[in-house]
Amino acid sequence: MTHGIVSAPQPEAVEAGADALQKGGNAVDAAIACALVQTAVDPQMCGIAGFGSMHLYLSEAGKHLFLDFHGRAPSKATPEMWEDLIIKEAEDGFGFILKDYVNDIGYGAITTPMSLRAYDEALKRYGTMTLAELIEPAIGYAENGMLVRPHINYFWNSDEGGGKAPHSMRLTENAEARKIYVKSDGSLHRLGETVCNPDMAETYRCIAREGVDDFYTGEIGKRIITDMEANGGLLTAEDLQDAMPKEADPLWGEYRGLRVATNQPPGGGVMILEMLNILENFDLGKMGHNSPDYIATVSEAMKIATVDKDNHVGDPNFVDIPLEHLTSKDYGAEMAARIKSGEKTHVPRFNPGGTESKDTTHVSTADEHGNCVSLTHSLGMPSGVITPGLGFMYCGCMAVFDPRPGHTGSIAPGKSRFTAMCPTILFKGDDPFFVVGAPGATFITMGVLQAILNAVDFGMNAQEAVMAARFCTNSETIDVTNRITRRTQAELEKRGYPVRRSPLSYHFAGVHALCKTNAGWDGGADPGRDGMAMSV
User: Fold this and answer.
1) Cβ(425)–Cβ(55) under 8 Å?
2) Do residues 11 and 109 both lie within one domain?
3) Which of 46, 99, 288, 503 is surrounded by the fewest CB atoms within 10 Å?
4) Do 383 and 477 have their domain in common?
5) What is the mean pLDDT of each run of 10 residues along the chain (536 residues)?
6) Of 338, 366, 400, which residue constitutes the final position of a domain?
7) What's residue 92's pLDDT?
8) Are both 390 and 480 inside the same structural domain?
């Protein structure tokens, strides 16, 4: 590595980030170049009308911080507006299923678009290049076409069940979306075909020319609000004007002598620290990687953290979170003792259904100056809505709010919903050692946790750490990928655990990581998301 390294789920985006580094840009420039291309080549996983969390360790400037840009409920939202429409809660806790999908598909699903403002602010404060420069590759992919890769094809054509809207509806319900993603014969574009989006290209050119303010308070913003008002959307001009990322300090912990920096609530960092604190009380290496003992122990830690998240973690501006207690070593030891006693944690759900769509992406970068960035950004569950002539899809994050008033995740105007996003950096002393993050909804924290354990407890390099077979437990069931042995599954079932096998070999988040070695930075990209790591 001469200039730096980039790891992300889309090869096109990785190339853009690497090009930014090669031109003399820093890790922030590379991350934003990558993120912008991601919005063009993976437009249901992320977009300029999305949200996210950006972890910045800036060695040169002596800064270590987060730019958090979580999705907010629009100012027209009210706690009780969907109370009578509840069908059930998702089994994994990622949202509620309502009658006619009003919180999931269409204009009612949209939260405040935050991503574009955050990209621009990151560059203005900490980058060396401009958004106008870095958006050029994204314009090219929008204009000339994105290639339908295996993961895109899988997402478009899969139905994860549980009562959520089929993924295809997110491409076919809105006339503008159909114009882009549906062919003349009525079918979606297939694997290997090219999808052009000239309206997105023109919108991006306008942003490059006029600046990001045009999206939030200018002509693009006016078109957005006109569309919302004409179609019963909750988003207002004031919501757009108030969209601004929040700068926050990292949430700190420690695991086996390493310092762990992750994000504050409403991000998922609290779950990472809680699970690590519990698992530090076990000799995981002695158990053996993905052995029945290991999976049962880690799964119980996952369940405990899930219950605590459901009960206590939300937007700190609206919820009093016992953060010090949840992330304390004493509480971790107490929960470890509970696991050792044989007690199994129950994860309550309101009329549970199935699992949810995991519509997010990630990028990790590091540069020659010691700067590191871990950025997770998303559309949540894409709303399926595209304003005529603008080309980009809005996020659909209202589905994650609790439609029952009086709960931690209940709807309130201006409130951010919990997100499992947890871009995390582990340090050996003062030096970054492991940079990690993932897409994957409620699977995110579970995937990031396992990558950390793989690197720290089992000595894996970055690629090994993200490729190792994963499992996930955020309900009563242990979900396993198809590479977890059936012998292990049988032993877990003998112990009384329901086990559900995925047909996928790589699943439960799409983890991407960088690991510092004696030879420099080593990159790992999750094969299940089509990505790659590239150093320049």
Assistant:
1) yes
2) yes
3) 503
4) no
5) 89 98 97 98 96 96 96 95 89 77 94 98 98 98 96 84 74 95 95 97 98 98 98 97 97 98 97 98 98 98 96 94 98 98 88 47 95 95 95 93 92 94 97 95 93 98 97 93 98 97 93 93 94 94
6) 400
7) 57
8) no
Q: Which domain holds residue 332?
A: 249-346+421-526
Both 137 and 212 in a single domain?
Answer: yes
* Main-chain dihedrals φ then ψ at residue 115, nearest 5 degrees: -65, -45
**Amino acid identity for residue 385 in this structure:** V
Inside any domain, residue 305? yes
The set of catalytic residues is 360
Confirm if 275 and 302 have CB atoms less than 8 A apart: yes
Q: How many domains does the chain have?
A: 2
Residue 64 resides in a domain: no
Please tell me whether residues 236 and 119 are part of one structural domain: yes
d(CA 418, CA 4): 32
Write down the residue that tokens 């894409």 correspond to: 382
Name residue, tokens 């997770």: 376
Tokens of 315: 């937007």
> What does the alpha-carbon distance between residue 306 and residue 308 come to, in Å, rounded to a whole number?
5
Structure tokens at 86: 């509840």
Query: What are the helix (H) ranges across 345-484?
Result: 443-456, 462-467
Residues 306 and 442 in one domain: yes
Same domain for 300 and 219, yes or no, is: no
Same domain assignment for residues 389 and 460 = no
For residue 471, the surrounding DSSP H or E stretch is strand 471-472
pLDDT at 356: 39
Q: Are β-strands 51-58 and 372-380 bridged in parallel, bridged antiparallel, or unpaired?
A: antiparallel
Q: Give long-range contacts, CB 8 A cutoff, 24+ apart: 248-255.
A: 248/65, 248/66, 248/68, 249/64, 249/65, 249/66, 250/55, 250/64, 250/65, 250/66, 251/323, 251/327, 253/277, 253/327, 255/280, 255/426, 255/452, 255/456
